[in-house]
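Feature request, filed as a ticket because there's no other form

It would be nice if the structure record came with a short human-readable summary line next to the C-alpha cells. Right now we just get the raw output. Example of a typical job, pasted below so the devs can see what we mean:
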Amino acid sequence: MFYNIAQKGMCNMEVKIKSLEKALKILECFTPEEPELGVTEISRKLDMHKSSVFNIVDTLKKCGYLEQDPKNGKYRLGLKVLKLSYNLYSSYDVRKTLRPLLEDVSHKTNETVYLGVLYEEEVIYIDAVFPLSSTLTRNIIGIKAPLYCTAIGKALLASLPDDMIEKILSRPLEAYTQSTITDREKLWEEIKHIRMKGYAVDNMEHEYGIKCVGIAIKGLNGLPICAVSISGPSLRFNEDKIREYASILMRLKKKAETFLL
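Raw output as currently delivered:
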C-alpha cells in the first residue's frame, strides 16, 4: 500500500497543536535562497511576536533541528533535519521500487531520468539517475517545480480531476522562458493532448536549452502516484527522439504499475 501524495496534498487538515504548527512554519522559513535567518527576520516573515519566535527557535536549537552561527547570531537548519531527510529518502517505497527501472531507462537513453511526486500543487523531485558518461550532475532531490511548465509536472497535472486542475491553473502562472505556456485555454488544450497521447513534453518551457518527456503512473483510485521524465539538451530531443523516449516511458509505466498496485 503506497501513500498517495496527490490526495494528501490537496486537502486542508485542521491543525490541533498550534505551537507545533508554528515550529514547523519556522523550519519552513529556511530556503536555499535564505539559508540563515535571525529572530527578527523570522518574526517579520511569519508575523509572530519575537519572544515566541525566540522560544521556539531556542527549543529547536537545543533539539538539534537548528544551529546558530556564533559570529552573526543567525540560525540555520541543523543536522537533525538532514538525518530525517536521509531516513525519508532511504525508506521511501516508490523510490526504492522504481529505482532499477529508472536506471535501466537512463542507461538505454544515455539521458537523465527524474522521479517526482505531487506535493502542494507542485512537483517535488524524489530521485534522479544520471547517465554513466555524464560528469555534470545536480542535486535536485527535494526541489519543487511548477506543474504547468515541466514534462513531469504536466504529466501529473493531466492525471488529476478537472476540478483540481482548475484550482491549480487559477493561480498566477509565471513565464520561465519565452516558451512557457501561461494562457489557461492553451494549457487546457495541452492537457487534452497529454491525455490523448499518454505523455507530456517540456519544450524548453522551464529552462532554456532543456527538453523533457514525462509520464504519470496512476494508482487504483485514478490519481497519480508519481511521474517519471527523461531530460536532456534540446538539440538531442527532435521529434523522432521524443516519440522514442515516450515509448520507453510507456513501457516503464506498465512495469511500474505492476509493482506499485
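Something like this underneath would help us a lot:
Residues 4 and 205 are 27 Å apart (CA to CA).
The beta strands are 66-68, 75-77, 112-119, 122-129, 144-145, 200-203, 210-218, 224-233.
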